[in-house]
Amino acid sequence: MALRPSAPPAPSFTNSPLHNFTLDMSNTQIGIVGLGKMGAALAQQAAEKGYPVVGMDIRPRPDLESDLIHVVGTLPELAQRLARPRKVFMYIPAGAAVDGIIEQLLGVLEPGDVLVDGGNSYWGDSIRRARRVQAQGVHFLDCGTSGGPGGARTGACYMVGGAPAAVALLQDFFVATAVPGGFLHTGPAGTGHYVKLVHNGIEFGMLQAIAEGMGLLTHFREKLDISAILQLWNNGSVVRSWLIELMKKTYDQEGGFTVPSYIEDTGEVNWLVADALHMEVPIPVITQSVVQLFTSRDKDPTWAKAIAMMRHGFGGHPYGEDAGIRHERQFGRVGEYEQPDETGEQPENNPK
Questions:
Q1: Which of the residues 87, 196, 248, 268 is marked catalytic?
Q2: Side-chain half-sphere of 300: how many Cα atoms within 13 Å?
């Protein structure tokens, strides 16, 4: 069992030099633990919307300091600077680190405070964490956040699970920092991260379909203007979307498909595929999109070698490329597929 960091003792607020400052702060104040791409972007947007922010990160972030953003280096100091009820967002990578931060925060938070996990945690972990946090009287929300760093900076899409009373404490903040219509209380604990997980699975399927379309365009016998086609598709076509817009933008920036073919990911959609097996829900497109992603990493594929070895064994097929076989593959078929005539019979059975 992984050991979690022990929680520090709760600080005494009555004698804290920041005590009077904290009491005078507006109840719109929020805390953010983790000032990476998402946390920093949300802090900047919140400040622009008039929400004072206390951020905490293990790395110095003097670039974020402003009249409404103050960065501290410890969780006790974060708690000292936040007005009650404290509202603390976590934007850190999913995994054991989230449990460790929660345990430390429970040592400095008080009943009635709100703890929000805005990362891509597994929904089952969020249900467990909600029970743990709520046992100490602290509210817990699992907040799936979509739109990437750009969305966190200018307007996010929030999927929030948790008790209605806890959501109510942050509803104005969610609405203010979301795009219009970009906030939904999805239900009890775990639902926010589950809805976000399904969202990510749909995203994988859409990415795969668009990518396969790009492959078809580039392999056509005539040279096609892919940038122009993508621009066209985003003007009234059925497939118009932000992903098509991003495809065109990045294609133009990179001068074509010049980037490495290795695709990295954090593994969340793998969880969804496993969940679907447990629930016996067929998700072939999402599952295949995950498998296709794996093939991008296989630079020396054992499976291909194994197939080549077996084909060599039963048919004497050569190892590697063969010009003669390639010619046969391309030109071995002479005619088109023979359709039955109007009687439904094959031509050879109905001579005329």
A1: 196
A2: 0
Cβ neighbours for 212, distance < 8 A, ≥ 6 positions apart: none
Burial of 196: CB neighbours in 10 Å, binned 0-12, 13-18, 19+: buried
Residues 6+ apart with CB under 8 A from 311: 317
What is the chain's Cα-based Rg?
27
Cα separation of 150 and 41, whole Å?
A: 8
| Active-site choice (203, 245, 254, 338) | 203
Alpha helices, DSSP H, located in 136-190: 148-154, 164-177
Q: How many CB atoms lie within 10 A of CB 12?
A: 9
Per-residue pLDDT of the chain (352 residues; tens, 9 = 90+): 333 333 333 333 333 333 333 333 346 899 999 999 999 999 999 999 999 999 999 888 889 999 999 999 999 999 999 999 999 999 999 999 999 999 999 999 999 999 999 999 999 999 999 999 999 999 999 999 999 999 999 999 999 999 999 999 999 999 999 999 999 999 999 999 999 999 999 999 999 999 999 999 999 999 999 999 999 999 999 999 999 999 999 999 999 999 999 999 888 999 999 999 999 999 999 999 999 999 999 989 999 999 999 999 998 999 999 999 888 888 888 888 878 877 766 655 554 4
273 neighbors 287 (Cβ within 8 angstroms): yes
- Return d(Cα 330, Cα 351) in angstroms, integer: 31
**For this structure, is 352 an active site residue?**
no
The vertex-174 CA angle with 39 and 113, nearest 5°, equals 75
139-146 and 156-161 beta bridge pairing:
antiparallel
All residues at 6 or more sequence positions from 328 whose CB lies less than 8 Å from its CB, including other chains: none
Asked about 280 being catalytic, the answer comes back as no
Q: How far apart are CA 140 and CA 162, in angstroms?
A: 6
Is the separation of the CB atoms in 159 and 192 below 8 Å? yes
